[in-house]
Amino acid sequence: MRIVVVGNGLAGTMAGKTAREILPEAEIEIVGEERYPYYPRPNLIEFLAGRLPYDRLFAFPEGWAERQRIGLRLGERVVRLKPGEHRIETASGASLGYDALLLATGSRAAVPPVAGVERRGVFVLRTLDDALALVERLSSSRRVVVLGGGLLGLEIARAIRGRETPSEVEVVEFFDRLLPRQLDPGAADLLKSQFEKAGIAIRLGAAATEILGAEETSGVRFRSGETAAADTVVIAAGVKPETGVAAEAGLEVGRGIVVDDRLRTSAPRIYAAGDAVEHRGRLYGLIPAAFEQARAAASNIAGQDRAYDGTIPSNTLKVAGLYLTSIGEIDAEGPGAESRLRSVPEAGLYKKIVLRDGRLTGAIWMGTKTGAAEIARLVALRKDVGSVKDALLADDFDFSELA
Ligand SMILES: Cc1cc2nc3c(=O)[nH]c(=O)nc-3n(C[C@H](O)[C@H](O)[C@H](O)COP(=O)(O)OP(=O)(O)OC[C@H]3O[C@@H](n4cnc5c(N)ncnc54)[C@H](O)[C@@H]3O)c2cc1C
Question: Does 202 lie in the same domain as 138?
């Protein structure tokens, strides 16, 4: 059997690895546009902060793919799918046949329609090449504006602020609070003050309309008419699933490449997994989902029957000295829903659980690592915690009671 994977990110790599575990004899080839072997994207944040050297960015030791007998074609872009012929074509003119094809094309950084984004000094952070370019710029940068107060924007801001010679940093968020999808207003307020204490300015409710400057960036103008000075702008305004080749080949594409519970696309023998995928109307853009989808897709390709029924989104903000996990529902809305909250602002502590008919459906856990992994696991299991819902938020709560 010959399996071809498009995309050398997490989903493509994990699918290749899983397929190899199940099918020792299969021919497996991964075609990836980036010229590097697989690296986890969160490592780019550590690299940006100067805490992780270049050679430790990569997930596997040199020669891993060869030892797995996985063919890697790096720096090669797939430009065309030919589902009728079971072939793909690459930009360099190669034509590769497959018995099964996995599309793991991920996403790209979304760039909003702001005038002047083409100026020198405007960056995104998605790939290692993006990170290398940004790090070079930061060596001579004095003032950075990060457009986007989501997880990625906040992690970028903290990383830049944590560098040996930090620039001034301001985060600009369109909504009136940070992390609107992951935090309720109380937790978002507390997070904002923690960032301000760390020397990062936060501007809420502001929409950038223009990057100012001649060739070089000199600042940002907002819809209100206000401006902020900046020699570097980093756009962290979400992602756009890469669906180009799938759409051109006539596969069903909505916001992402549409797949069923076995990660099959609308075309025979073509599967998809990861950020590029739309499953039951949902796009995740998260590692756990990409990982589970990749494992399931590879298993199905290998002839096993493995259903994927979705992932409960869990987000952790990984910035030094600040713990934050948000999982599942963050507000108690609708019949049967209730919440419990414990907040100690002076200690930076904010813990909230959301229950539905006694079962745990979501949590915000901020200011402490203790209990975070346990609560995330309980939410994933939708555990019935009705009898301990008032005790659960105490610092000394013993989670083994719920094991
Ligand atoms: C800085 C950063 C930090 C992050 N931190 C977290 C985190 O802490 N937790 C979390 O859950 N998620 C995090 N994410 C998101 C996470 O990285 C993604 O969910 C994950 O990378 C998805 O994997 P993927 O393989 O689907 O897509 P991608 O990682 O985007 O990989 C897709 C690959 O396919 C290639 N490709 C696309 N089209 C083609 C083509 N036509 N031909 C050949 N190759 C192609 C792309 O170049 C890319 O290399 C972070 C993202 C970034 C950028």
Answer: yes
